Amino acid sequence: MRPNVANVAEKNMSNQRSLIHPRDEITQTMARIYGYRMTTTSGGNLSIRDENGDIWISPARVDKGNLTRNDIVCVKADGTVDGLHPPSSEFPFHKAIYESRPDIRAIVHAHPVALVAYSICQSVPNTRLFHQTHSVSGNVGFAPYACPGSEQLGVNIAATFAEGCDSVILENHGVVVGGDSLPCAFQRFEAFEFAGKTLIKAQQLGPVRYLDDEQLQTAHDRSVDLPTFEPGVASANERELRRQLCDFLRRGCRQRLLISTEGSFSARLDADTFLITPTQKDRERLTPDDIVLVHHGQRELGKKASRAVLAHRAIYQNDPDAKAVVFAHPVNATAFSVTDVKFNTRTIPESYVFLLDVDHVPYGVQYLAGGSIAKYASTHSPASILDNDGVVVVGTSVLDAFDRLEVLEATAEAVINAGAIGKVAVMPDAVIDELRSAFNLS
């Protein structure tokens, strides 16, 4: 491995032009939304306004779970329609949004359950739960009710977007989100729904803690600029770990343990060399080539490591047994992160054996220089709740870290659900001592 001290111009992937046809972008994104159970067979619609002013939109009355590229409709700038089906009945409000906001090039409208709950209550979720959801969701707003498909609905929604809103709750209807591209709109939609779901869960636990301006700014301003190096030929082990990371990241997104814009996963190669997710790339769509190699504090040439890279490195340096680290945002466990409620793993044997006692980490510790996060995260303390920032899990392999993340989320969901049934009964100290002895827990 050869250090490279030259300055290299590196492209920000979020600014690259899309080479995917609008038909394919819409079908791929709809498949993802439907697969995440964030819309129904008949609900929701997506659109893209292209450089000619033509609007590509999902069709009316076609199964959203089985949409093909040939189903996508193009409504040309002159009003003519090209397609096998009529455009979505909600086309009028898509058109109205584009006319009111020239900067918006793509729109997502759907009926995800959490945001529909807010629409029914005529309310908007507070996205200050986390820095990422607050940043990605953009300005949020509320549009008053009008009949679906009507011109008046378009007037109402467009007026809210014209005020500068990017993510808009529709009274008794659902949500509409706009962005400068369909990936951007999807990420806003996903982050907004994530905030809504987390808030609903957290309110079942107790009072919710939000971030103030200074805390949001601290997270926004953090940056990592590692020097670069040019790696040599990848070993078979490195190639295998790259594949494993991508496979488990994809699984994590589909199981809603991660979201596309947040979370990081790393795997250790040797004492001070590890692989980690890149920054500003969709987690579900990462390939082995996207994963970043970090060696002695230097990043692989031409790639940008996650901004959590120093936290990952600190954990590895502090614990030689740590082989994989994941920072993630599973909804139920993350609900604990925005309250002061203790996460109690002494509920069933598996939870305690896999996670031991789970502590809260004060907000922002993972951002601090000096590696303070390593005091809270190790193979001896494999899971911790990060105040207003999800969770961190440490494992002895990629599989082990992912398994513990799953157990963490399943336990959190069970505990929250149990609260609706009665008082949560925890295992007594004698049972914990027995488990520690039986499973050789240090």
From TrEMBL:
GO cellular-component term (any): cytosol
Signal peptide segment: none
Claim: DNA repair is one of the keywords in the record: no
Keyword Lyase set for record: yes
Entries under Gene3D superfamilies matching the protein: Class II aldolase/adducin N-terminal domain
UniProt GO MF annotations: aldehyde-lyase activity; metal ion binding
Pfam families the record matches: Aldolase_II (PF00596)
GO biological process: pentose catabolic process
Domain (Class II aldolase/adducin N-terminal) ranges: 24-200, 243-416
Domain of life of the organism encoding this protein: Bacteria
Keywords associated with the record: Lyase, Metal-binding
InterPro entries referenced in this protein's UniProt entry, alphabetically: Aldolase_class_II_sugar_metab (IPR050197), Aldolase_II/adducin_N (IPR001303), Aldolase_II/adducin_N_sf (IPR036409)
Cited PANTHER family: 3-OXO-TETRONATE 4-PHOSPHATE DECARBOXYLASE-RELATED, FUCULOSE PHOSPHATE ALDOLASE
UniProt name for this protein: Class II aldolase/adducin family protein
Organism for this UniProt entry: Rhodopirellula sallentina SM41
